[in-house]
Design goal:
The protein is α+β, with helices and mostly antiparallel strands. Helices cover about 20% and strands about 40% of the residues. The protein contains one helix and five strands; from the N terminus they run E-E-H-E-E-E.
Length: about 80
């Protein structure tokens, strides 16, 4: 199962969706969750293992894991 997670600053992460490429309904649910939570200021990354992280701008059903993170703020 692939996962879509949202990193919550100071609170760990939240699993927003899981999908299986063999189950089209699970993919559309995950794609909808991605669209809902990939808001301006957030970044998305495809995680393919240690040292194999790729920034993405749209949902990728072939990704083993996708992580949404809030934008880094300086001060």
């Amino acid at each position: 199962m692939s996962k879509l997670r949202l990193l919550k600053t100071g609170h760990g992460d939240l699993c927003l969706a899981e999908w299986d490429v063999a189950q089209p309904d699970s993919i559309s649910d995950a794609e909808r969750a991605f669209a809902e939570h990939f808001t301006p200021g957030r970044m998305a990354f495809r995680l393919d293992g240690p040292g194999k992280t790729t920034p993405i701008r749209e949902f990728d059903a072939s990704a083993p894991e996708i992580l949404l993170v809030p934008a880094i703020q300086g001060g």
